């Protein structure tokens, strides 16, 4: 997913095909569940598809930017913000009809995941919210004021990554989403995306930075072969896939990298120079 309505699909993460989204909005995130792909973007954009090829616009009932989404407990949950924060959370049973929920925060919300029977939402200034149903939300103490960008769950552990205003890239871990522990990342870079697969946590960030970890508590730097910013990463079909989109919208992006182990990376031809913000896999 990317700027100006960009959607690309692939069956093998090697050869990519451009699809018609019907939108010119920037598309920030994609998730797949309940036989449905769901894309979120600027100005409250939500698109759905059963096959990743043909897309339908849905009414989100908000004009706020929507940054991330997930599915759990028979519920889609989408989070976002506007220019002043807003703490936007929307839920839906089917990705068609959406309901606004009270988040209890005015912070911008950047990320959401579901694991271990818990939704976990991240935001600015160390914001972490949790919920069992996506409707009622509880604020948790993160122990940091850094902006938090990415979260995943693996090896019985939630791993959160974030900014570096205190001098090093932020990593937090938790077994339950409630109590969080700060870890030493070993890098001064910001950390923007994280996923888990093949018994490995893989973290991505600015200027092509990629790191791996076996336990989510310490990182080893890997060579990506590019200098564009890497925003998000996923794992599926035994392949890690990460995509690029530089912070400066005039600088472009469009890189797609793949790896079987998180260590050695191969650049793929995306067919676009638009910034790419997210990637997901359908089992």
Oligomeric status: single chain
Q: How would you sum up the global shape?
A: globular
**Secondary-structure element series:** EEEEEEEEEEEEEEEEEEEEEEEEEE
The DSSP helix count reads 0
Sheet having the most strands:
4 strands, antiparallel
Q: How much is the radius of gyration in Å?
A: 17 Å
Average pLDDT for all residues: 96
Got a strand count? 26
Termini Cα gap: 18 Å
Supply the helix-strand structural class. mainly beta
Kindly state the percentage of residues in helix.
Answer: under 10%
Low-confidence stretches: none
Strand content: over 45%
How is the largest sheet built, in terms of strand order?
3-4-5-6
List keywords for this structure.
mainly beta; globular; 283 residues; four-stranded antiparallel β-sheet
What does this entry look like structurally?
- There is one protein chain.
- The protein has 283 residues and is mostly beta strands.
- It has no helices and 26 strands.
- It has strands at residues 7-9, 17-19, 27-33, 36-41, 46-49, 56-58, 65-72, 75-82, 85-92, 99-101, 109-115, 118-123, 128-131, 138-140, 148-154, 157-162, 170-174, 181-184, 193-197, 200-204, 210-213, 220-222, 230-236, 239-245, 253-259, 266-268.
- The radius of gyration is 17 Å and the shape is globular.
């Amino acid at each position: 997913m990317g700027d100006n309505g960009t959607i690309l699909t692939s069956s093998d993460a090697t050869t990519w095909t451009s699809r018609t989204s019907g939108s010119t909005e920037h598309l920030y995130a994609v998730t797949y569940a309940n036989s449905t792909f769901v894309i979120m973007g600027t100005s409250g954009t939500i698109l759905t598809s059963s096959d990743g090829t043909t897309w339908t616009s849905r009414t989100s009932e908000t004009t706020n930017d929507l940054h991330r989404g997930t599915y759990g407990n028979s519920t889609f949950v989408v989070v976002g913000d506007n220019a002043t924060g807003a703490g936007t959370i929307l839920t839906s049973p089917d990705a068609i009809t959406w309901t606004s929920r009270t988040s209890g925060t005015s912070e911008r919300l950047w990320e959401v995941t579901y694991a271990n029977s818990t939704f976990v939402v991240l935001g600015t200034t160390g914001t972490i919210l949790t919920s069992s149903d996506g409707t009622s939300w509880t604020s948790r103490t993160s122990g940091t004021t850094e902006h938090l960008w990415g979260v995943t769950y693996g090896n019985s552990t939630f791993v959160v990554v974030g900014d570096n205003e205190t001098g090093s890239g932020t990593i937090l871990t938790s077994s339950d989403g409630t109590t969080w522990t700060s870890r030493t990342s070993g890098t001064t870079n910001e950390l923007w995306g994280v996923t888990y697969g093949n018994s490995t946590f893989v973290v991505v960030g600015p200027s092509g930075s990629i790191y791996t970890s076996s336990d989510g508590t310490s990182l080893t730097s890997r060579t990506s072969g590019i200098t564009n910013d890497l925003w998000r990463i996923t794992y599926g079909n035994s392949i890690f896939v990460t995509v690029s989109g530089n912070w400066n919208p005039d600088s472009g992006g469009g890189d797609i990298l793949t790896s079987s182990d998180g260590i050695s990376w191969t650049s793929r031809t995306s067919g676009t120079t638009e910034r790419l913000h997210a990637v997901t896999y359908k089992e």
